[in-house]
Specification:
Blueprint lengths: L2 H37 L3 E3 L5 E4 L10 E6 L2 E4 L1 E5 L8 E11 L2 E12 L5 E9 L5 E10 L3 E2 L5 E5 L2 E7 L5 E7 L2 E2 L6 E4 L4 E5 L9 E5 L3 E3 L2 E3 L8 E10 L5 E11 L7 E7 L6 H10 L5 E4 L5 H9 L3 E4 L6 H4 L3 H19 L5 E2 L19 H12 L2 E2 L4 E2 L9 H9 L6 E7 L3 H16 L3 E2 L16
Parallel strand pairs: 2-7, 8-14, 16-21, 22-23, 22-28, 22-29, 23-24, 25-26, 27-28
Antiparallel strand pairs: 1-3, 3-4, 5-6, 6-7, 8-9, 9-10, 11-12, 12-13, 15-17, 17-18, 19-20, 20-21
Helix pairs in contact: 2-8, 7-8
The structure holds zinc ion (ZN).
Length: 473
Amino acid sequence: MSSKKKRVKKNYKRKHLMVFIFIVSLILLGVLGYFKCIKNQLNLKGYNGDITINYKGKYNGDDFTACYGNMFDCKKAKIKRIGDIDTSKLGKQKVTYEIEYNGKKKKIVQEVEIVDKEKPVIKVESASICPNGKINTVNFTVTDNYDGDITDKAKVEYKDNKIIITVSDSSKNEAVKEIKDPVKEDKDGPVITLNGNRVVSLRVNDSYEDEGAKAEDKCDGEVKVKTEGSFNTSVAGSYTITYTAKDSSNNESTEERIINVYDVNSGERVVYLTFDDGPSQYTGKLLDVLKKYNVKATFFVTTNGPDDIIKREYNEGHTVALHTATHVYSYLYSSVDSYFEDLNAVQYRVKNLTGLNSTMVRFPGGSSNMISANYDGGIHIMSILVDEFEKRGYQYYDWNVDSDDAGSATTADEVYNNVVSTLKEGSSVVLQHDIKEYSVDAVERIIQYGQANGYTFDKLTPSSPKAHHGVNN
Ligand SMILES: [Zn+2]
């Protein structure tokens, strides 16, 4: 063989080898691509799995893409997010991604935890310690990005000449603030707290003993109270008792108690609280308030409500008087007999429970009511009943202060305002209903107002003012 022939043959072999390698590579790549497609039907890019985000941080949704197919033909899959993440709520939340590819669906559930890593912020306005080393004043506030104002959660201590404020938020992020060498001073006097009411209203010859006061000092703890002034319950007038307390830094505080002694018979301001339609489940708490202020009231009761409450009204010194058994106008004002039949029923109940034969009455609707004319067949029943009352020894009571709790007043505030704004200079007979909780709720403030403004409270008796409206039927 010539060397030329040999070279041609060599070239021919190399070409074949190259083609062979090229074909094998193509097959390999094809197989790889094919297998890649089978093995990794879905390629997810940018998906981070479960993540953590700061409170009120941003969650944009995981910005990832998904492809399917093979390396020669890679198609984008559709991704749909189901649900959302609320980063203003701490804790773990879940969101689902639905990926659609090749007619199939794959779901990925991502867990996102919202955490609060921010410490609360402590702001100190002023701080001082007592001459004896106790903490005196530390005026500060603590605000937290998540919990809001958590000033009351802070712990304050004094150690090594430092006031140390420590506080943790609900995610246990702790903040500490130290105030080095705080000023030693005590500028505040003791706080005096009176036992009993600040304004005491008494009738002449009522018994009353000064209830005293307590004094507490920030630096010294409990300190002595000096009492000055006197009063005479047998002489009408306004008396002042002064309480004084001093701490070890000579800071002095004073408080006063006003004791008003009224002569009821000399045309003073007297308030008669009266309650109709009870007793009810609210009457017990009304009795608690009356007891707290030592106020006596009048209850025009029905045959409804608990027996023991009527007994309690009587035992606690209130007047138990008569309203009605049925409170049904069409019945009780249909005839004189019907009226007294109804009244006898409630009178019998009161006698059974208290032993008292009450003759004190409040007409349903008041003596001036015109409703009775709808049912009495024209006999002018109110006029007849008033005459009958005189013959049979009954007294009836109307009112001259209407709380309007049976009308348009539907809150304790309205009842309170209606009463205190219309109190009279002489006698005020106040109409309320103890079957209305909001009306009962107004009583404590009415008493406080009255006692602070020179009114005495009393219960109705057979000889009390009757605030008659006048009969119209
Ligand atoms: Zn009534």
